[in-house]
Write a structure and sequence with these properties.
- This protein is mostly helical.
- The protein has a domain of about 70 residues: DNA polymerase, domain 1 (Orthogonal Bundle), CATH 1.10.150.
- The chain has 4 helices and 2 strands; from the N terminus they run αβαααβ.
- Strands 1-2 form a two-stranded parallel ribbon.
- Helix 2 packs across helix 3.
- The longest helix has 14 residues.
- It is extended and about 60 Å long.
């Protein structure tokens, strides 16, 4: 029974939760709608129109200025959003190429 718990838990995780973060300043409306929860094609198109009208989106909070996007939607998606000032974290232990490793001898 214990060996079934993990696979069942994985089924409960929405596919969108596993998606890579999306840069709102370069993504298409379709990609935004596919990646963000509670954002369909029409709201995604409003995000595109917002960035065309006002320039690059600096922070996720700017989405609150778009009609139909509220605090709950923003909080559900915050970890998936990349903006001009909010970039994904850099790896803490980046993998180095073989040519970068100095010999130990």
């Amino acid at each position: 029974m214990k060996h079934l718990i993990f696979p069942i838990m994985l089924l409960l995780i929405p596919i969108s939760a596993l998606a890579e973060p999306i840069d709102l300043n370069v993504a298409s409306a379709q990609k935004i709608a596919e990646t963000l929860d509670g954002i369909g094609r029409s709201k995604a198109q409003k995000i595109i129109e917002y960035r065309i009208r006002f320039g690059p989106i600096d922070t996720p909070e700017e989405l609150l200025a778009i009609k139909g996007i509220g605090e709950k939607t923003l909080e559900k998606n915050r970890a998936k959003i990349i903006t001009r000032l909010i970039q994904p974290p850099k790896p803490t232990n980046p993998v180095r190429g073989l040519d970068e490793i100095r010999p130990n001898h």
